[in-house]
Amino acid sequence: MLSHGTVVPGSWLNMFGATALLLFLLVTTCATAAPNCPPLGPVFEKPRNFKSSAAIRAALANLTETFQARDEDNSAAVRANITSYSLEVFSISDTDPVIFDWHHTAPAHASSNITNGGVKKTDADTVYRLGSLTKILTVYTWLVQDGDVKWNEPITKYVPELAKAADKAKDDPVGNVAWGEVTVGSLAGQLSGAVRDYGLMGEFTQMVDQNTAVQLGFPALNSSDPTLPKCGVWPHCNRTEFFSGLLQVYPSYAPFTTPAYTNTGFQILAYALESIKGKPFQTLMEEPILRPLNLSRTFYQKAASNLGIIPGPGTSSDAQWDYQLGDENPAGNMYSSVRDISALGRSIMRSTLLAPVLTNRWLKPAALTSEPNAGVGYPWDIRRIVLPSVTNGKRVVDAYNNAGRIGYYNSLLNLLPDYGVGFSVLLASPNLPANANFNLADVLGEQLLPALEEAAKEQAQDTYGGNYANGGGNSSLKITTQPDRPGLGIENWVSNGTDMQYVATVLAAGYAPVNPSIRLYPTGLETVIPGEMDRKNGRAATQGKRVAYKAVFEDLNVPSRTPPSMFSTDCGSWVSLTGVTYGSMPLDQFFFEVDGSGKVVSIENAALRMVMRKG
What we know:
Blueprint: H1 12-16, H2 18-28, H3 54-70, E1 84-91, E2 98-104, H4 107-116, E3 128-129, H5 134-146, H6 160-165, H7 168-171, H8 184-188, H9 210-215, H10 239-246, H11 264-277, H12 281-290, H13 329-332, E4 335-336, H14 338-350, H15 356-362, E5 367-368, E6 374-376, E7 381-386, E8 396-406, E9 409-416, E10 421-428, H16 436-464, E11 466-469, E12 476-480, E13 488-495, E14 498-499, H17 500-509, E15 516-529, E16 544-555, H18 573-576, E17 581-582, E18 585-586, E19 589-594, E20 600-605, E21 610-614
Antiparallel strand pairs: 1-2, 1-10, 3-4, 5-6, 6-7, 7-8, 8-9, 9-10, 11-12, 11-21, 12-13, 13-14, 13-15, 15-16, 16-19, 17-18, 19-20, 20-21
Helix pairs in contact: 3-16, 5-11, 5-12
Keywords: Signal
Signal peptide: 1-33
Domain Beta-lactamase-related: 120-432
């Protein structure tokens, strides 16, 4: 334990004992040093002026060259001659809302669209079908209309057909979904355990006749068999038929066991919201989302064919442009353009229609998957991307995606909240290449993510980098960035003449560090500072802000666990946050004061209560 009073840094060795320190040094110097371990989230503030970044300009030049070559590639992996697509890289920045866009019209489509009613050339307003990307709009509609306060409530509270069947699972859990345990949130997060579809996609009896099914090894089903769907692809199931059939189908899992993809869950969510709000689901979506965001090229029902890309040969029916999903529309029916999908993604990350805290809850995993770098959200497909460019830091970027496919169409929305950037990808082809949407995402991500990290670092250095000191001259520090490390680095930190970099790391770690390191990371917390009245013209001056950063105190001589241990870790910074306080104030909390022009004026440590002005 540390005693009260002033301690000279050189005497710390006596407190811990020379023998213990020697043993520690013997262990740590024989292993690879552990990298910096930032908390989850951005390690720099979101970049704003993308076009001024050399790294971004280089990445965009590489993307241009890549897509030019790709649009000449007719191999089975690309099929540029029959695959049209549109994509945009967008941001929440007012300066550069669209960072990059690219559109390709397949030669086969340019001629076929003359006869089938579609557009002759793709652009940002060209309409494509979304497929399951519709699900994001369905969940967004629920959150805008009703928030997430009901997400832990049973769905049976809002869907009477399920309430009547809730007790069946008590006697036969193998044969019945435990609907009383299925919550609103579990449906949005693919955790209900219910069947994927009823009567539509995947229902083989809707695709072939009985003779063909028998020839393929399936048993013949009598037309009176209650499990044989009498509706689905056509005619569509009405609500009564849907629940009558759904309640006869076995569950995949018990609720909350594992993520299991469903379309039926989103149909049920729409029924529940209609019950709560007393309006049709289409109206519930259009009134608070499509109209306020001016998504004029986004449609819940069939869009006019002259707005869309409709691949040939054949008609719009062959491309499934005309086909509707009926009451399962909330799972995958919609139409949109990349401009509108970008505006949708931008509104989510800006919290345009939701409170920021609700957005933060939405952009979190609902469950993990069997793939270590993947998770499932509401209903996001989450990818955990390790940035290889940060060689001396564990930098993980979480990407929130939602993809879809229907007929000749493929779609993807990607959000990168750490950067306030995302991209929208829409494709159309009579023979879509495998994984076409995510293949384009890979092309974009490989160039963009390292460049975005570098752009954020450049901006952080320009904004915060420099020397800070108090008027008395006995307290000072330097802020800088390093090419291979995350966050802002604190160097030469002296408080009242004491080496505070050393002292803070000792207090946080509980031993004498060999190579103390302090990195600062943004918390997202900002307070507006009202500007003083301009006496000359009587108007308020431009407002400044107070920006909070969190420090992580580390000893870079601690050994790295490479390869990773089964239970132990060399990256547990979230446990140590606010581990040392002085007069209740955290030693790892720093505040920058920024004036109305965006210039940093000073830095203050919460525990030391000392303001140091930037030189």
